[in-house]
What does this fold into?
Amino acid sequence: MKSKRSFILLTGITVLFFSACKKTTDDFPQGPTESIDTTSYVIWTVTGLQQTGTQLFALVTIENKSGVPVVSNKKLALDNIQGTYKTDKILLPKGEFKLSKFIVVKSSDTAVFATPKVNTAKAAQVSNPLALAFTIEKNGINNAAVQVLKINEADIPENFGYTGADFGFQPSLNLNIQLKITVDQVAYDSLPGKLKIDASNGEGDHWTREIDLQKGVNGIRVPETYSNYKFKIAKWNTVSQKNVSRQELQANMVILLEANRPSKRLLEEASFIENGSGFMADSRTEYFYTANRLNQIKNYQKSLQVSELSLTYVYKFTYTGNNVDSIVRLDATNISTGYTAFSYKTGKIAGISNQSYDQHTGGAVEYIAGGDNEVINIDYLFFNGNTMNYKIFMKGGNMVSDQAHSSTGGSEGGVYEYDNNVNPKYRLGYPDLFFSNYSKNNLTMEQKNYVGSIPSSVPYKFEYVYDDDGYPSEAYISYKGFTSQQHLFRLKKTYKYQ
It folds into this structure.
């Protein structure tokens, strides 16, 4: 079964419901599907740590079995879960490692607990002083334990095997960090990323930190006693870096790390449906370009007549300037089945005319507010005289909710959430009747409600495998019955790019 996002409610008929073949639920595996995440992590359970009433963090250094740091001065949040402190997860491959630094600090980076190193004054007070060997053996979460001691006023860093810089015994500055990557004129702003800081002075001293930035503007602290500060993030095969001298550094300033990179062209999207023996090919869509813009789409779908995927339709694009003027639809025998034509105002779609065989749908488009909180209002007139009003609510370049109301009394609405990665269809240059390619990030959640007709199945789980450029290479979408709420089937999509 192949389905696209569709309005099944609103005209007293099914408006857009695409199906390549019909299957019963007996064709699909029942029960929830396993996660596709094959990465491995370690989480540290911290003993010896008493509650302080404030947010605590851990500074962690991990070396491989050869003694080379793979995580260096990484700052992790510590969470108190039912009286037990645990770190955030640390991404590591499978293998043998050594924990060589573990210091618990306040938000100011001042140390309050630490794990002593071997052959130091404090080493005998813990069961396992550092370096502590551990192994990552499985996918998912690997648990490990570390013991810390409270740092008292009379303690000096050397008693634990650390320096004064390690313990944060130096004045510091509050700063703010923001990451922005522009992909072919599309800004992906306030991105999460792995920040590396290297502060240095003329004597060759260095202070380093690794921090996992969350989406948005992140507050950080750096010591103010160094002469130069390097801030660096490597993301999507792109390096964003800024060097700031101490004279330029101001308390609470925002350091914006920016980079630009070209977009990739989507060449193929293939869909597979899961059955008891694995994934079976269900459809394939190929994209063709002329002069760097979309020229043609070919779709192949599974049929009962032949075992291979068969050509089902061809879409051909014409342009006026940089805007898509029309998309002509042809069947496998090159006979026209309809078209979608667009008119524009100030560079945006203002009108849509859609012909499907002998059925015509028109749409008038209006943009309200604009900017980060744009509302797109579309009034449709269907071939049978029924009408529909559809509102799309945008935020940050994504459709976060929508509402549709029909003259027949049917309605449909939803709320949506997205990840932070690149949606390959956003810059494809493929507009359609219901603006389904209008979000710049990839969908991770949707919650829908219906009045009138309801679908037999709805998606409830979205999972992605991303390439190094931030584009999905695979997507897994799980479906459940809308009424039963039971898992029905799962689709796999694969993507090829140029």
The two ends are 28 Å apart (CA to CA).
